[in-house]
Design brief:
The chain is mainly alpha-helical. It has one domain (3-166): dinb family like domain (Four Helix Bundle (Hemerythrin (Met), subunit A)), CATH 1.20.120. It is built from 6 helices and 2 strands; from the N terminus they run H-H-H-H-E-E-H-H. It has helices at residues 8-27, 31-35, 45-64, 83-102, 128-152, 162-166; strands at residues 110-114, 123-127. Strand 1 and strand 2 (123-127) form a beta hairpin. Residues 1-5 have low confidence and may be disordered.
Length: 171
Amino acid sequence: MSTSAIDLAEYFDYLCKARDRLLGWVRDQPAEAYARSFPIGLGSIRATLVHIADAQRGYTMRLEGSEFSPADNPFSIDKLLELEPLISAWSGFNPRTRLALANLGDGARVIEYASRVLAPGKRLRGTAGGLAAQLFFHEVHHRAQVMAMLRQVGVAAQDLDYNNLMFDRID
């Protein structure tokens, strides 16, 4: 199935639904758990969540063909020290991501961009469909790390599978 034949915006809706549940678990913890150091992920729930939001912004802007720089980044660990401002900023950006995915167009469209993390100073080339996939898979990867951190503080973080959250129960 080609990328343009599937509803990427619907898949993004799933990410947001799973993310809301994850953020609820984080919100229910004492504030110190949000910034606590862990030997996995980006070292803390805060750093990992801010990174996911920042990456979403970057992939969205690349899909749109927009230029951006780290200087104008609202998703910075220095700017988002607490959970609620992150949730607010991230929620505010979600419609833009959903629209970029809904309007993806040709999934084979080539996109080139400067790497900020993987190979700083280098250029990367991929497809619009590949960037959309990376947006999804990147969040799931880091979401699993946050879930593992939550389990270390006693939260039974589980059951965020697509079928659990998006399929209708018929029996």
